[in-house]
């Protein structure tokens, strides 16, 4: 039999060919009328809309008179609408609050657009969760009293009976009931823990609880907000919430003094595990080695209770002191000291450590005033050898090398190589202390001539302790010349004034040497103390601009030498020189107009402030 082909152009333009063995098309399987999807269901949060998807069309497209397929049962109002023949939504006027239960029951006799009846089924339901703890006071993981009252903030009000039935306290795996406190206690705790609320503010969604019975000191504690606690809308909480605490220890005290034994110069602090009254704190005494009682630092006015008492130092080194507590000490809750807590405590004071310090790494000493450098000694030898080297040279390159050697000396690291070796041409001075060794005293080293000095003490006491003499070294320039400069692209300026009178110094020989020791310029100052350099000092801006070996500018007048280093420009920062700065951007620094350590000379101070 011949194959038969029939071509037919249908409305959709599809070509069909049929043969003798062509299959007969199957009819589409009918879709059962049902709800394909209903959202949300069960426990959920942040609900604003209910959405329903049907398996078959329920209404004619765009029919505004189509009825709602469900009957809503919810405390919050809303409106329904059809999106298309198979999608229906219910919009609430606001996000549903916690503790709410809603149900949607299919309307009786609900039919599809084709007239098919949907099968009967129970209502669809969801809830926004039962009461949950948002905050607790005291805060979670904090320390609580033995009979602590807890202020609990909830996301929705809870039924009081269900709180008593399902909330509990657990300590050492032993559960105990909670006591629900009256509204007056809630308001009292709210004012205590929320002192900055507006006057008359009412505590909303707060409850106050207390564990039944007295809790054991230092015991772990869990406040359990149990599953099953119901909201006013009848929605129970789904799981336990665990809030962890620790019960405070018995009343006791401890002392701190930064180190053991107590450092002789620092205060001794006595800390109680809970505040005691002001009168009891002031009754504490510290009996010194000579038997004298020392009273603590006064408690600030307005403080009725305090947990920390300070006994100011210094104390006699290598002595013993005794802390004595008054009898019947109680804390603010009336608790006495724990059993076995001593009423007296013996403390040992440390020895005074040996130390030596200069006011700074480098200083300028006025030639026409006391030519002295102060050195502060603590528990040092009565006679202290000091190596003093005067850098006596007219060669700026050699002077610069000495300054670079001093700058690279390891002041803050252990070094067995002294700055001034025994082979160096230097003299050894001996400073004699006027006070006993175990004391702090400032002695003065005379520098009779002008020029640059390196000073290095040779203390045997520090050498025995550290394995080297000391890293405390100092450089001092004895001069009456102040050297200032300003570098420019076309020319530069150096001006020289006297330190004692502030007047210009005429005829001073000025030399400029770069960081490599190459002389860039030399000349002398005019009658106004100025030296104008009419050339470009390229090396000062180029290869020496960012190097630590700064360029040197010297001025000489007679036997006097003054100098400055280019690295000193802009080197004063808020972290150097005891300059303080607050967050507003103001920097302030207090300095003396003369050296306050100079003997028998009045000392005045000035404070400089600037805005950044």
Describe what this molecule looks like in 3D.
- With 612 residues, the protein is mainly beta.
- The protein folds into six domains: 35-127, Immunoglobulin-like, CATH 2.60.40; 133-247, Immunoglobulin-like, CATH 2.60.40; 253-348, Immunoglobulin-like; 355-479, Immunoglobulin-like; 481-568, Immunoglobulin-like (Sandwich); 580-611, no CATH class.
- 8% of the residues lie in helices and 37% in strands.
- The protein contains six helices and 41 strands.
- The strands form ten sheets. The chain has an eight-stranded mixed beta sheet, sandwiched between helices. It has a five-stranded mixed beta sheet with strand order 25-31-30-27-28.
- A hairpin with a 5-residue loop joins strand 19 and strand 20 (293-294).
Walk me through the topology.
Elements: E1 35-39, E2 42-43, E3 49-54, E4 70-73, E5 78-84, E6 87-92, E7 101-106, E8 124-127, E9 133-137, E10 143-144, E11 149-154, H1 160-166, E12 168-171, E13 174-180, H2 183-193, E14 206-211, E15 220-225, E16 241-247, E17 253-256, E18 268-277, H3 278-282, E19 285-287, E20 293-294, E21 305-311, E22 320-324, E23 344-348, E24 355-357, E25 362-366, E26 372-378, E27 383-391, H4 396-407, E28 427-432, E29 440-446, E30 451-457, H5 460-466, E31 474-479, E32 481-486, E33 492-498, E34 509-513, E35 519-524, E36 530-533, H6 538-541, E37 552-557, E38 560-565, E39 580-581, E40 586-592, E41 605-611
Parallel strand pairs: 2-8, 10-16, 25-31
Antiparallel strand pairs: 1-3, 3-6, 4-7, 5-6, 7-8, 9-11, 11-14, 12-13, 12-15, 13-14, 15-16, 17-18, 18-21, 19-20, 19-22, 22-23, 24-26, 26-29, 27-28, 27-30, 30-31, 32-33, 33-36, 34-35, 34-37, 37-38, 39-40, 40-41
């Amino acid at each position: 039999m011949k194959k038969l082909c029939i071509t037919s152009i249908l409305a959709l333009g599809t070509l069909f060919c049929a043969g003798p063995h062509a299959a007969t098309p199957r009819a589409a399987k009918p879709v059962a009328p049902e709800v394909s999807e209903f959202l949300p269901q069960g426990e959920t949060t942040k609900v604003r809309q209910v959405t329903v998807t049907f398996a078959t069309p329920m209404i004619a497209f765009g029919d505004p008179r189509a009825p709602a397929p469900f009957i809503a049962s919810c405390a919050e109002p809303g409106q329904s609408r059809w999106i298309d023949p198979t999608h229906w939504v219910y919009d609430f006027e606001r996000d549903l609050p916690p503790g709410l239960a809603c149900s949607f029951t299919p309307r009786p006799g609900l039919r599809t657009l084709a007239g098919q009846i949907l099968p009967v089924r129970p209502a669809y339901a969801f809830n926004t969760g039962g009461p949950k703890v948002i905050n607790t006071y005291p805060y979670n993981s904090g320390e609580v009293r033995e009979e602590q009252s807890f202020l609990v903030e909830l996301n929705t009000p809870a039924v009081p009976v269900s709180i008593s039935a399902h909330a509990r306290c657990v300590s050492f795996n032993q559960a105990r009931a909670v006591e629900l406190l009256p509204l007056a206690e809630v308001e009292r705790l709210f004012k205590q823990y929320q002192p900055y609320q507006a006057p008359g503010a009412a505590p909303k969604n707060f409850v106050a609880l207390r564990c039944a019975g007295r809790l054991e000191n230092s015991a772990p504690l869990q406040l359990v907000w149990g599953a099953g606690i119901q909201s006013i809308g009848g929605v129970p909480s789904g799981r336990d919430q665990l809030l962890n605490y620790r019960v405070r220890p018995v009343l006791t005290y401890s002392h701190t003094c930064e180190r053991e034994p107590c450092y002789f110069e620092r205060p001794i602090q006595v800390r109680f595990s809970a505040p005691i009254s002001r009168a009891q704190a002031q009754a504490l005494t510290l009996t010194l080695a000579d038997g004298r009682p020392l009273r603590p630092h006064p408690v600030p006015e307005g403080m009725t209770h305090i947990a920390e008492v300070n006994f100011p130092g210094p104390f006699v080194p290598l002595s013993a002191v005794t802390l004595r507590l008054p009898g019947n000490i109680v804390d603010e809750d009336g608790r006495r000291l724990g059993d076995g807590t001593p009423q007296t405590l013996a403390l040992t004071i440390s020895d005074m450590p040996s130390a030596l310090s200069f006011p700074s790494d480098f200083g300028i000493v006025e030639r026409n005033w006391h030519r002295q450098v102060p050195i502060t000694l603590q528990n040092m030898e009565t006679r202290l050898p000091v190596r003093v080297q005067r850098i006596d040279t007219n060669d700026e390159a050699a002077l610069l090398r000495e300054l670079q050697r001093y700058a690279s000396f390891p002041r803050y690291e252990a070094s067995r190589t002294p700055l001034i070796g025994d082979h160096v041409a230097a003299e050894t001075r001996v400073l004699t202390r006027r006070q006993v060794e175990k004391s702090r005293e400032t002695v003065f080293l005379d520098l009779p001539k002008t020029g640059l000095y390196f000073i290095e003490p040779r203390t045997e006491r520090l050498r025995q302790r550290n394995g080297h003499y000391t890293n405390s070294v100092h450089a001092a320039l004895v001069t009456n010349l102040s050297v200032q400069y300003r570098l420019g692209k076309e020319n530069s300026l150096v001006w020289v004034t006297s330190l004692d009178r502030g007047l210009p110094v005429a005829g001073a020989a000025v030399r400029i040497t770069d960081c490599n020791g190459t002389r860039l310029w030399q000349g002398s100052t005019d009658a106004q103390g100025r030296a104008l350099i009419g050339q470009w000092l390229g090396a000062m801006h180029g290869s020496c601009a960012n190097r630590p070996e700064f360029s040197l500018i010297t001025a000489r007048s007679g036997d006097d030498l003054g100098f400055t280093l280019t690295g000193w420009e802009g080197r004063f920062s808020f972290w150097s020189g005891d300059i303080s700065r607050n967050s507003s951007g103001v920097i302030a620094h207090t300095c003396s107009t003369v050296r306050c350590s100079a003997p028998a000379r009045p000392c005045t101070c000035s404070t400089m402030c600037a805005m950044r």
